[in-house]
User: Which sequence fits this backbone?
């Protein structure tokens, strides 16, 4: 699979607006500012595929991208989460759409959960892991901004996350990543290719 041949398909505010539930897709989720857009842009080699630094409180959309020439294999950019400024009602509505998408989307093969290696397993991350567990859906954790820590510290951060999730080890995999240093792209590629072609 060549992720460099990825193009924008459509944006959907709710599950009902998503493209046909056929083929396979992988969703990217993460707390705002974790580094999700940078990871998607690095994976696809397209600097403006996923917009970085979105405006807080904007309409939350699920963005779909096609990998390759047809739309049978897709990457999905789930809205960032966690801006303090978002009103509680908006937050709740967004959670409902997200839970709905994770529960009902048959073509969803797995989720990449992006975490800042310095602040892993936030409340949002725990909520996502809970939903993934409820739906028996595999999760690949990207501990990104690994360049912000020394090698040893990054390795221990990864071990801590793995140890915290031993009860989910059948569903969860963990890797270090850095968009700035282009670290971990091959491992991410392999996981996505497996999910999208099984
Ligand atoms: P998003 O809100 O999760 O989409 O996060 P962004 O991709 O917009 O990144 C948030 C901030 O973290 C930006 O200032 C990025 O430049 C920075 N960032 C993202 N990835 C990395 C990385 O791998 N290393 C470093 N040092 N900074 C990063």
Assistant:
């Amino acid at each position: 699979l060549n992720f460099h041949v990825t193009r924008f398909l459509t944006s959907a505010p709710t599950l009902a607006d998503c493209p046909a539930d056929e083929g396979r897709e992988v969703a990217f989720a993460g707390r705002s500012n974790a580094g999700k857009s940078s990871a998607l842009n690095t994976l696809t080699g397209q600097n403006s595929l996923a917009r970085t630094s979105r405006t807080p409180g904007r309409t939350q959309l699920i963005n779909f991208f096609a990998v390759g020439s047809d739309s049978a294999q897709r990457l999905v950019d789930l809205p960032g989460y966690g801006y303090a400024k978002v009103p509680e009602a908006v937050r709740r509505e967004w959670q409902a759409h997200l839970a709905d998408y994770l529960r009902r989307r048959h073509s969803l093969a797995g989720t990449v959960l992006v975490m800042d290696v310095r602040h892993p397993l936030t409340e949002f991350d725990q909520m996502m892991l809970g939903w993934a567990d409820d739906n028996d859906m595999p999760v690949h954790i990207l501990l990104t901004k690994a360049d912000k820590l020394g090698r040893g510290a990054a390795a221990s951060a990864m071990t801590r996350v793995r140890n915290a999730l031993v009860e989910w080890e059948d569903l969860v995999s963990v890797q270090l990543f850095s968009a700035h240093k282009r670290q971990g792209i091959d491992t991410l590629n392999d996981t996505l290719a497996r999910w999208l072609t099984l």
